[in-house]
Structures are given as structure tokens and as C-alpha cells.
Amino acid sequence: MAAGTINTVVGSGTLITFPVLLAFGYAPVTANVTNSLGLVPGSAAGAYGYREELRGQWRRTARLACGSFAGAVAGAVLLLVLPAAAFKAIVPVFIAIALVLVVLQPRLSAWLLARGREPTARAGWSVIVAVFAAGVYGGYFGAAQGILLLAILGLGLPESLQRINAVKNVLAGTANLVAALVFVFAAHIAWGAALALAIGAALGGVIGARVGRRLPPGVLRAVIVVVVLSAIVQLVLR
């Protein structure tokens, strides 16, 4: 429930569930693929809870979801063929950069606007490529994928933080779902644990949507900062 709530409001719920699965004795890769599958219902519940904010954005979101889809397939394949330590050193760096971008997004957007580079309502190829890269990361590990997406969408789309958060939930859910489908056929999944995660995450997604949609932009950014700093500390100390 905690992971589903945090994923909907901000992202990085994996940093709760992944260590729990490891603590129960699951191997790292098994824990990772089980976690990806188990959190999918939470993303779906969160996206449904943000359906009002998604109004008028479905065509653009579908375009971006294609990038998440392709990236997640690539990331899932990388997880199955590369050593688990491949991303360990750079994951905290990615998350820290995303945090800076999210916090500074209003100023960065104003700076880009002053230079004649106003975000367009239709997602450009640069945004799609960046979403693809986030999808690769999401398919490979996924912790704080939502933070990366918030940073990308905040700079690339002329929308409020809440409407961007709604799109983020759809894209992160797409990446999780696609990666999970790859893992179902190519990796070992602990189905009992996945079911428990799915039930809790779905409930958390409902809670997260109700809480997150009521947060003012400033408060939401503050929540993002707290969650991401905690995520970075956990990743560095792991």
C-alpha cells in the first residue's frame, strides 16, 4: 500500500517493496521481476484516479506511451542479460539529476521560454526519446522512474505539475506492465508475493490519487524532494 501510494503521488515505491522482497529471501533478479509485476495494478489505479487530469491529454499520452513501451522492452531484456551491478553506480546520479530538474522546473521553463523554446502541446521527438530512455531504466530496475518522468515531462510539456503527474502515472505503469509481460515468459516470478504486492499496490494507488490530487504544486514538490533524498540515501547505503 505504501509503495502504491508513493508511486502515484511521486514515484520510487520500488525502494520500499524491493528491499522487503530481499528481506524475505528472494534472489535479487526474482525480487526485481516480481516487484515489476506486483506494482502494475497500483499504477493502473493511480492513473484511473487521475482521470480528470488526463482529460484532453490522451492522444499525447498514447504517443509518449509508445516510447515507454519500447524502452521497457529494452530494459527488461538488459536485466536478463547484464550483471545486476551494471546500473548500481549510476542510478543515484540519475535520480539526483532528476530531483534537481523537478525542483528547478519552473525556473528552467521560464528560461527556455525567454530563449524562444516554449514547450509545445504535442510532445516532440526529444521528449519521446527521453521517455524512451526512462522506459529503459524502468524496465531494468524502475526505482524512481516516476521522478525521471516528472523531470522530463515538466520541461517538455506546457502543463501544470498535477496534469504532468497524471501522464507520469500512465507512462510508468506502461513500462512496468511491459517489463512484467517480458518477465512472465522469460524469468522466474514469485507469484504469491506478486499477488500480495498487487493487492496492496492497487489500494495504495487509490489512496495516492486522492491525496496527490489535493496537494498544491509547492507542497507536491516538497514531497518529491523528501522522497527522492530518502531514495538516494537508501541506494547509496545499500
Q: What structural category do the secondary elements indicate?
A: mainly alpha
Q: How would you sum up the global shape?
A: globular
User: Tally the helices: what do you get?
Assistant: 12
Gyration radius, to the nearest Å? 16 Å
Which blocks of ≥5 consecutive residues have pLDDT under 50?
Answer: none
Order of helices and strands: HHHHHHHHHHHH
Main beta sheet strand tally, sense and closure: none
N-to-C terminal Cα separation, in Å?
Answer: 23 Å
Q: Which range best describes the helical content: under 10%, 10-25%, 25-40%, 40-55%, 55-70% or over 70%?
A: over 70%
In total, the number of strands is: 0
Number of domains: 1
Oligomer: single chain
User: How would you state the average pLDDT, rounded?
Assistant: 81
Task: Name the beta content range.
Answer: under 5%
Keywords:
single chain; 238 residues; 79% helix
How does this model look, in words?
By secondary structure, this protein is an all-alpha fold. It has one domain. The chain has helices at 2-9, 14-23, 28-38, 40-49, 51-54, 58-81, 91-114, 125-140, 145-156, 161-186, 191-212, 217-237. Helix 3 (28-38) crosses helix 11 (191-212) and helix 7 (91-114) runs parallel beside helix 9.
